[in-house]
Amino acid sequence: MNNVNRRVTSGNVRTASRRPGLSIKSIRNTLKSVDKQFLTAVYVLLAFGLIMVLSASSPIAHASQGDSFHFFKRQFLWAILGSIAMFGAANYDYRKLKRWAFPFFALSIFLLIMVLVPGIGRKINDARRWIYIGPINFQPSEVAKIATIIFFSYSLSKNYKELDKFSVFILYIVMVGVIALVLMMEPHFSCTMLIGATACILLWVAGAKIRHFIALGLCGVPVIILMVIKAPYRLARVTTFLDPFSDIQGSSWQIVQSLYAIGSGGIFGAGIGQSRQKYMNIPEPQNDFIFSILAEEFGLLGAILVVALFIFLIVRGIKIATNAPDMFGTLLATGITSMIAIQAIVNIAVVTSSIPVTGMPLPFFSYGGTALAITMGEMGIVLNISTHSKELDKSK
Questions:
Q1: CB 381 within 8 A of CB 89
Q2: Alpha helix (H) ranges present in 66-139?
Q3: Which residues contact 332 (CB under 8 A, 6 or more apart)?
Q4: Alpha carbons within 13 A on the beta-carbon side of 233
Q5: Residues 43-93: pLDDT tens digits?
Q6: Where are the beta strands (DSSP E) in 113-171?
């Protein structure tokens, strides 16, 4: 893809203009022109995710809220809002995002800083990651993810020829470092790693030299090791990973219960709604460890199906990125697809004890309104890019 990106340009591609606004007619027109395979994968994953939120959350919802459907109803509402956001984004010319790239990026950093302000940011489980405004609460880190992708895609689409210079490469790394510094003050280690990895993928696709990444790795790996050693809870996660059954009643509890859930599912699963581990054994099973409940209820075959769906979505996203009419579209689709891929890979690796535990949600599945709505909006951007790619093909 690196070579492909060097052949595309950052502009001067004319495609049919779209009328602004979201209506039934515009949705119909969008459905006719978008990548239907990508859209189908999104909705199959979303439907599967809603089913799992209902199943995984019902015991804890009944115990804490007196309503077994509490979390499902909220997630379903956000899924509707997310669908509106997706079709709105799919109907909005992605190239117009260029004008908002820097303001949006600056706003995301401002919101990350505001999280640290007492009275604005709310602290939960020793982490200050949420902003509460009346009945609305959200994580600014979710905004920072897409803001970083848009800004980097726009900036790199203009400056990719300068990436041969180490000084230009470092400038982008410094920008990522600013976001990482604020995120680590919350702290939010998993989001820091996610944004950093996505930014590096964008830099690589835009043409950054491998030797620059090697130099970055030689400097960055010691820093990551130091961050793990200096934080007792991170160090405990590493030692737990090395020996999951070393402290079953303590630090290993969550991952051991996850492995029990996956193992008890067998090949065909216990059946939908029949998980035992969701009954107070796995803390908040509707969140980061929802995949283990899925494996328990749908078995190995169900887990493989979900993995296959994610692979299909990622492959289609890469295809859309490759066929984008300009460098900005290529990088934008690449960044969004990469972020989904990283989250899915890391989440599944965590619940199967393939890597140390980290709080990485599973896209479309893990409970969280802000994350779901923004993810759906991101899918809309990719769909819009696919629409322009087809328009470009028709014009040839």
A1: yes
A2: 70-90, 101-115
A3: 94, 97, 149, 150, 153, 321, 324, 381, 382, 385
A4: 9
A5: 999 999 999 999 999 999 999 999 999 999 999 999 999 999 999 999 999
A6: 121-124, 127-133, 136-138
Look-up: residue for tokens 């980290």?
A: 358
Q: DSSP letter for 11, please.
A: S
Helices 210-230, 232-242: crossing angle, 10 deg rounding: 100
SS3 261: helix
Q: What is the dihedral of CA 246, 249, 250, 255, to 10 degrees?
A: 70
Considering the entire predicted model, what is its pTM? 0.90
Is residue 294 within 8 A of residue 365, CB to CB? The reply is yes
Q: How many CB atoms lie under 10 A from the CB of residue 206? A: 25
Q: Hunting for tokens 């219960």 — which residue is that?
A: 257
Q: CA–CA separation, 166 vs 371, rounded Å? A: 34
- Give me the helix-helix angle, 189-206 and 166-184, nearest 10°: 160
* Residues paired with residue 38 on neighbouring β-strands, in sequence order: none
Count of CB atoms situated within 10 Å of the CB of 220: 15
How many residues comprise the chain?
396
